Amino acid sequence: MSYKDKKVISIGVVSELTGLSERQIRYYEERQLIHPDRTKGRTRMYSFSDVELLVEIANKIEDGLQTYEIRKINESQKEQKTISKEKLREEIRGQLNVRFGLMNRNESKFK
């Protein structure tokens, strides 16, 4: 896990870093745009990636987008990243197969 993804920042610090009020940050959580972790004491904890995402959200809101539109955009971007990662895995698997003469499980040596 990258240091950017570790949830170690409190909402007060996030507010200072982003210029957003704590109320705005909680609202974005209610709208499922951001997903902080919670401590045992129920304190919200954010990562540096969350801070960057909150700034992007604020910019999109400022540009006139609605929260549901932002959520759809974020979901689409996550899907694209997942698809890209899977394509990369397939390419690497194919290169290893070619390099080392490996076969898919469905292929038989005795064709």
Automatic annotation (TrEMBL):
Keywords from the UniProt entry: DNA-binding, Repressor, Transcription, Transcription regulation
PROSITE patterns recorded: HTH_MERR_1 (PS00552), HTH_MERR_2 (PS50937)
UniProt GO molecular function: DNA binding; DNA-binding transcription factor activity
One Pfam family matching this protein: MerR_1
Record domain HTH merR-type: where: 8-76
Protein's name in the database: MerR family transcriptional regulator
